[in-house]
Amino acid sequence: MKILAIEASSEQGSVALLVDGAILSRRIDGAANHSESVLRDIAALLSEAGLTVGQLDAVAFGAGPGAFTGLRLACGVAQGLALGAGLGIATVGSLDALALQASAPRVFVATDARMGEVYHAAYVRDEDGTPRLVSGPRCDVPEDIELLEGHWTAVGSAFAVWPDALRHRLAMFIDDCRDNLVARADEVAVLGARMAVSSRLLPPEQAAPLYVRDKVALTTAERLARGGRA
């Protein structure tokens, strides 16, 4: 299985190439660098592996939720490559990729959504290691988030941004907290390969980012109400 993956839902983007179980990847730091680097890094990965886009089995992208611009970039690049090569697309949840990276039986993922809110979802690991969604994905203010019963491995940037509202308030349910992890193209590629095997690829024209919040910016009144500047 040969899968090219793109993940740009956060400040730390990445591209990865999964070739028969082995992964080649490159990191892209800074959201402003995503658009400049992604095609160049994809070309470098394909060259390193001695492959062309037409030799791939599918293209996968991290569909979010996450940064609007990054999601549109990842989706657009995936669509362009897949259309040109006649490939299907694996639309992989970025929170799913984070849950897989955590490699724990029960994972609660929460990432900073800006505007005082958090994207979150809960997963239980299946026998084959795939994270199975049991709650979410949702977008809520951190004080409103509650965990399902049991103990969880907490993952994602929201636990660093909102330590009191999340990490400390929910401490009785959290066995381990990994607030430095971000979604990576490595896991997007792995999950994309599983989707390809199970015939869950989409035609390029049907691929789209996952939006769990339509609003991408606060109004001036809302910023002032939350203590921000006009």
UniProtKB/TrEMBL annotation:
GO terms under biological process: tRNA threonylcarbamoyladenosine modification
Residues of the Gcp-like domain: 31-145
GO cellular component, one term: cytosol
Gene3D superfamilies found in the cross-reference section: 3.30.420.40
Transferase among keywords: yes
One function term, GO molecular function aspect: transferase activity
Domain of life: Bacteria
Keywords: Transferase
Listed NCBIfam families: T6A_YeaZ
Name assigned to this protein: tRNA (Adenosine(37)-N6)-threonylcarbamoyltransferase complex dimerization subunit type 1 TsaB
Organism: Thauera propionica
